Amino acid sequence: MRTRITAVLLAAALTPLTLTVSAHAAPAAAPWDFNGDGRTDLAIGAPGATVSGQVKAGAVSVVYGSTSGPKTSTRTLLTQNTAGVPGTAEAGDAFGSALASADLNTDGYADLLVGVPGEDSYDTNNGTVTIVWGSGTGLSGGRSLYSPFDTDYDRYGQTLAAGDFDADGDLDVLAGSTGPITLTLVNGPVTRTSSPNGASGARNSWWSTSYGTTHVSSGDVAGDGHPRAVLHGRTAHDGAAATGLADLEIGNYNDWLQDLPGGFVSAVGDIDGDGHADIAVGNDRETSADPGGALGGKVTVVYGGPGGKATDRAPLVLTQDTAGVPGASEKGDRFGSDVALGDVNGDGRADLVVGTAGENGSAGAVTVLYGSASGLTTKGAVSYTQNTSGVPGTSESGDRFGERVTLTDHTGDRRADLSVSAPGENAGDGAVWSLRGTSTGLTTTGSTSFGPGTTGVSTSGTPAYGTALNS
């Protein structure tokens, strides 16, 4: 993919920041550990939730980790009507459409970023991003993320990522949007009281501005200590999936994208343990809907190297017809509806979970494949549904189990646990499942499931609980 990116730099003078670090700081908390207990917590977006009678205002449930996994008795419910959270819940705001996390103010507690792409400010669906601060007692208080190009985009915050993208030592935020500017890099540090520290925006003439940047993931693909961003959009000429790997340290924003296989979602993690994070790209479309798709959907693994993409290793293409992968490729399966990478068995290599939300009449399924020194292997691959022994519930048409998946360590045992959402469960209420990681892989023993009502989200209308999860 050869495309030109034009940067729009903030012209106003910006006040230098003094970063205040609490005594708890050193080192900064891992993403998603909002209360600093060494266990990642689970954030669940329900952008369709009704709040105080406002339809699709949106909500986010945060369930805190414990030795047994996400513990619904310790939770925080966030809406724009929550004390300390900016704004007011209004119909169509879609609070919780996207989620990201980082310890932005380096106080030892991870903070939560929430996309609110339907927010109306300067114009309709201008969008905003809300930051909610972590603390020893969990999430509380918030502010809005700097929004520098209000007249040049819509749906600001429709996708989010956080990391030190410009390699200056401060954590930055990436926010996707539609319109002339499709990606905004907000420079860190971002604290509770800081003034804006600068921003830049990108125009990508090859991507459709009506879709904009639709998904972002990130990781240390080059192995040089700072993350690259994997950006997803759709082409202007035919709406096909377009994916690129970007180094945001490059200041001129010209020719910054390395072409990746087209897909709608991605995850980044070191599958083979070589110090270079690898990229899994999911494309759940049929070829009739997207030229880069496949019958039943596909996932492509691109291995990382010193320059970004490894030049000496061919990408690995996976479908349900690949030898060792459970199931069979059938129209509408949506293999690759979501992907996640994390170390399930604690061997130091990332494992891959693939959502297949269209399986069996959109009842849904997830597939787990394991990393090895030679890369991803199909040996020992296993599939889970709601009909799998030990998994709560029953597979039903339209549940979309596997629409979203995430791998994070909720128990603190240094093994990633699997969380799966099914936003179609119970006629659009949605639900989330959690399975533990062990030294031999995932286990259904002790697996749990819960829906919106359990964590305080209204089931009026179709909240679509689990539309977004930790990424």
Summary of the model, kept short:
The protein is mainly β and 471 residues long.
Any overview of this molecule?
This protein is an all-beta fold. Helices cover 2% and strands 38% of the residues. The chain contains two helices and 31 strands. It has helices at residues 359-362, 425-428; strands spanning 5-9, 42-46, 59-64, 71-78, 98-102, 111-116, 128-133, 140-144, 154-163, 172-178, 183-186, 199-204, 215-219, 228-234, 241-246, 257-260, 265-269, 278-283, 298-302, 304-305, 308-309, 316-318, 335-342, 351-356, 365-370, 377-384, 404-408, 417-422, 431-438, 441-450, 468-469. The strands form eight sheets. Strands 1-12-11-10-9 form a five-stranded antiparallel β-sheet, with no helix packed on it. Strand 23 (335-342) and strand 24 form a beta hairpin. The relative contact order is 0.13. Mean pLDDT is 92; it is low at 1-26.
Task: Quickly list its features.
single chain, 471 residues, 5-stranded antiparallel β-sheet, 31 strands, globular
**End-to-end gap:** 26 Å
**Proportion in helices:** under 10%
DSSP summary, beta strand count: 31
Largest beta sheet: strand ordering: 1-12-11-10-9
**SS content category:** mainly beta
> Helix count, per DSSP?
2
* Rg measurement, Å: 20 Å
**How would you describe the shape?**
globular
- Measured by DSSP, the beta-strand proportion falls in 35-45%
Ranges where pLDDT stays below 50 over 5 or more residues in a row are 1-26
Q: What does the average pLDDT come to?
A: 92
Largest sheet: 5 strands, antiparallel
